[in-house]
Amino acid sequence: MKRGFWLPWLMRGLGMLPVTWVSAVGAALGWLLGVAPLRLASARRLVLINLLACYPELSWRECKRMARRSLMETGRTMAEFTTVWAQPVDHALARISHARGLDQLRAAIASPRPVLILSLHLSSWELVNLLLGRQGPAVVMYKPDDNPQLTELVRRGRERTGCRLVPATHSGVKVALETQRAGGTVAILADHHPTGANNPFVPFFGHPVRTPGLISKLVLRHRPHVFFASCWRRHGPRDVRVIFEQAPDVENGDTEQSVLTAMNQGLETCINRAPEQYHWPYKRFRWTPDGARNWYRHSPQILARARRDADRERLGLVSR
């Protein structure tokens, strides 16, 4: 019997419940993580480290409060995804109460130039994927899960409105390049941590991180229309706001560094609209140009010192 074989079945069952119930369950689980002792809750340590590093203007108490809210919102997000994949498309899309920038996006898709969508792990990002598919055919890059049943569940859920999923591998990159060359639409989660030395280090919240070099290749080679796609919950799971906004600074960049710097700055702007709803339990800052950071491995010691108001620059949480 394969490990985790039950997970897709559990997700299907959970996804058939009303979204308000599912969201409440996820929030409750996130709350439990948020009040658990730091030594036992690695996800809470991750969130706190990332918030302390990205928002140096916030005090320890403010970061601690934001971390608790963030874990609750992350719980909501993960739980609500099951309803996006399991329930009828129109039911899921009805949760979007406002969508801005659709006219500009449709005009760009209708033009001869290709379109590049840069999304991120913010709030109910799976709904953005469904809404994008309704605007026209699009290739969406994704990372398959180790569980093939779960991968298939996610793939079917995401492709229901016309998007085509391709893995973030050499074969998927080839499809993305061919799609852009033909004037089509490609969507990429632009805030993930890529591997490989061909992905340069670019500042993100003031810290150099590996950034997907594929995005600058697509921009510099094919000069697509570029849009940021983001969303956030305003008043619960049935009030999701979506924004497709043009990214002229990314479109007009003339070097790899200028394109990716403008992209990361745009992602920061999207996150700062609803920072508690960003997916902070992620080792986005694992590497530096000089090697591995010690933030996550030594998080208990760093957080203990941060709690005593130790200078964050001395802790290595603020770039010099």
Structural features, described:
The protein is an alpha/beta fold. The chain has two domains: 109 residues, no CATH class; 189 residues, no CATH class. 48% of the residues lie in helices and 17% in strands. The strands form three sheets. A seven-stranded mixed sheet has the order 1-9-8-2-5-3-4, sandwiched between helices. The protein has a two-stranded antiparallel ribbon with strand order 6-7. A two-stranded antiparallel sheet has the order 10-11. The longest helix has 27 residues. 43% of the residues are buried. The mean pLDDT is 91.
Distance between the termini: 51 Å
Uncertain spans, ≥5 residues at pLDDT below 50? none
- Radius of gyration over all CA atoms, rounded: 20 Å
Spatial arrangement of strands, main beta sheet: 1-9-8-2-5-3-4
* Average residue-wise pLDDT: 91
Quickly count the domains: 2
Count of strand segments: 11
Strand portion, in percent? 15-25%
SSE string, helices as H and strands as E: HHHHHEHEHEHEHEEEHEEHHEEH
Helix content: 40-55%
Largest sheet: 7 strands, mixed
State the shape.
globular
Number of helices: 13
- Assign the structural class, choosing from mainly alpha, mainly beta, alpha/beta, alpha+beta, or little secondary structure: alpha/beta
